[in-house]
Amino acid sequence: xxxxxxxxxxxxxxxxxxxxxxxxxxxxxxxxxxxxxxxxxxxxxxxxxxxxxxxxxxxxxxxxxxxxxxxxxxxxxxxxxxxxxxxxxxxxxxxxxxxxxxxxxxxxxxxxxxxxxxxxxxxxxxxxxxxxxxxxxxxxxxxxxxxxxxxxxxxxxxxxxxxxxxxxxxxxxxxxxxxxxxxxxxxxxxxxxxxxxxxxxxxxxxxxxxxxxxxxxxxxxxxxxxxxxxxxxxxxxxxxxxxxxxxxxxxxxxxxxxxxxxxxxxxxxxxxxxxxxxxxxxxxxxxxxxxxxxxxxxxxxxxxxxxxxxxxxxxxxxxxxxxxxxxxxxxxxxxxxxxxxxxxxxxxxxxxxxxxxxxxxxxxxxxxxxxxxxxxxxxxxxxxxxxxxxxxxxxxxxxxxxxxxxxxxxxxxxxxxxxxxxxxxxxxxxxxxxxxxxxxxxxxxxxxxxxxxxxxxxxxxxxxxxxxxxxxxxxxxxxxxxxxxxxxxxxxxxxxxxxxxxxxxxxxxxxxxxxxxxxxxxxxxxxxxxxxxxxxxxxxxxxxxxxxxxxxxxxxxxxxxxxxxxxxxxxxxxxxxxxxxxxxxxxxxxxxxxxxxxxxxxxxxxxxxxxxxxxxxxxxxxxxxx
Length: 626
Ligand code: F6R
Description:
Strand content: 15-25%
Radius of gyration: 26 Å
Shape: globular
Largest sheet: 8 strands, antiparallel
Structural class: alpha/beta
Mean pLDDT: 93
Oligomer: single chain
Number of helices: 18
Bound molecules: fructose -6-phosphate
């Protein structure tokens, strides 16, 4: 949701800023812009559309400026036109500002500024900021930092900003209120960015700004202040990332690379969450080591999961596992709904926020609301118990909740979530088994059986990738012109049907619906004809025969049937027109395998259509606005 990047130091800023934007383009790509301070003036260049358009505009420029800010936009206020692109400037063009987030009170501020004669050049909420800073500087003989400080105190909403001024050529001011921004520390050069991938090529010494903090960056160092003006003492920490992690490494798209990284991610999760040696004979110790305190998980009567999009689908798999294996009643809520219509308060309730980015505004707000509404109670059973499942423990979620399960997927750049979904599901296996053990909901032998199955998953995932990718690539040719798809699943594979449909929608722009297979006959079956392919996930287990019958119902309506089903299953082979075989696996563990063909199908259909797989239209990787 918009990417911001800033640089001050000893090198030409524009190359570093453009490189930073490239790494942040997954956050938004409606327009891009850059501003530097050069010979006492602000030099600002902006372009509508993807970063490449800005790069073309800048081609041939030799700009030696050593300070600058840059922005890639996901439009919220105002169309994706050049005049709405950031940076925005004050009337005299002495101040340039970039912002990620939303200034909620911008209308009032705009009217107020207009009443004093200020003319606006854009429709954005951001433009009020440079005008207000200019007014502060004109009114009193104050510093740039102080002017920015006074202005951020007037802003309402969630925002991260970076400010430069032609009159302060050695200062970059950065501020954060509920939207992420990380500072990077080099030798005599300093950086800021919405996310760490923009920093890792230059430094691994980083400091995420916290809410209500400002940074004054100069070539001599970085000072941190609170919004009320107090100087704060902070120490950077070292990231254990390397720059290669944010490159495509020979793959055509990040999404394909990330699909292929999944077996490694599952191995990392197995190592992080489970005792690798555990067997039924070790029943006096837990098979998991999540490091969660007993008071978080004992006597649980209810678990509520809040999440958005793909993370919500992972939550649905989590609900199945927690209810069916550990026996704890669980509800899953869209965070955007829960925050305004929460379920009534129940006793001994664990609330889990699932968000790969740790920055999704709705998920954070739902968790904050839950924390707040329970803070008034003195009875221990009504107090909040919060847990986060995230790929970014250093994110805003990490600040908000006291306990985190880190999903260990490594940075995900493709806008469509793939490996982070699989890692979230792994986190739920671990949590469900942890609860199962604590509650003795299954025998040690049953637990051991599940663990043995989990340990085999990475190799089985590799089999799917090796044996199916070429085939699915060819299959994708058949669907280049298809307009509608149906995905069916039941039980633990119903969320996988939803996920398959979401992947296809978001990157191929084909309409797709995920449905519980048994519900088809209650309406959606009317959509079916020879032009609508149906992908059904049919894994032997509690609902195998049922899914095959539901698939037959679709076949009777001439739909082309594609089955994600185990190898050598005769009944499935007789039912489906096309088979995408996966290894035999316990139904309970099957989502980790069945999701892969659906990811590959979506990927290859989109790639075949020549679409921008990693940056699909209208989307952004991290949705930091409501
Ligand atoms: C889909 C996708 C989105 C995200 C959703 C939540 O591929 O990526 O649906 O899952 O925006 O994002 P996080 O998990 O960061 O809260």
